[in-house]
Design brief:
The complex is a heterodimer of chains A (184) and B (52). With 184 residues, chain A is α/β, with parallel strands linked by helices. Chain A starts with 8 loop residues before the first strand and ends with a helix. The chains are: A alpha/beta (184), B alpha+beta (52).
Chain lengths: 184, 52
Amino acid sequence: MAAATGNVVPVYVDCTSSESFTDLKSKYDVKGYPTVIYLDPEGKQIKEMGSREASAVTGEINGVAKKFPGRPTFWMNSAKGAATYAKAAKKKVAVYVAKEDADPIKVTQTLSKNLADRKTKLAWTWELGTAKALEARQVESAPAVVIYEVGEKETDLKMLGKVQGDDPKLLNEGIDEILKNAKK
Amino acid sequence: MRAILLFAAAAFVAAAPLDHSGKIDWVRDPNFGLAKAKLEGRAAMLFFTADW
């Protein structure tokens, strides 16, 4: 089943706190947990997961994925996913710590325009800049880009440097400096 | 708008990582997950859960 989820964008919506994601729960009429809903790329509900049996679930996911094959962007789903890719591709990991109210599409378009080949030199992932995330990534404010080297294990990330702010020129210069220093 | 999105997606195409660990590589920020699905032209699978 895990392999099948590589063909869709799997989103974990943690509703442990009743105040979390109220808009999403209301929009998709979620009344209990767990609930799994498939959406088309525009966010329109296709259907709710019917079966809980592994092979049937895999078939469902594959069926939905077949309708929307799409193409992956430079964004990996998570830091772990980015580390897996980075290790295999001998790249560094770049974690984009976003402002809490950031629009991911606008950010992607801006980065697309400005990063040039840095987007493929690095394995990029996105994290929401909550207080917890800022502390974990050791940055004072978002947006920020934190660059890591992957160690022996994929969970072993060594920070090489960080760049804060959203000025494209400073961002690129900061990334280049970090990568240059990493080569020394 | 659609043309811009497609351009953004095409400009950023990279090899997707293959996860052989048997674990699902979840996106934890739904806002980002939905935007990612839109940019990539792929379906999203929303897993609503609560750890009580």
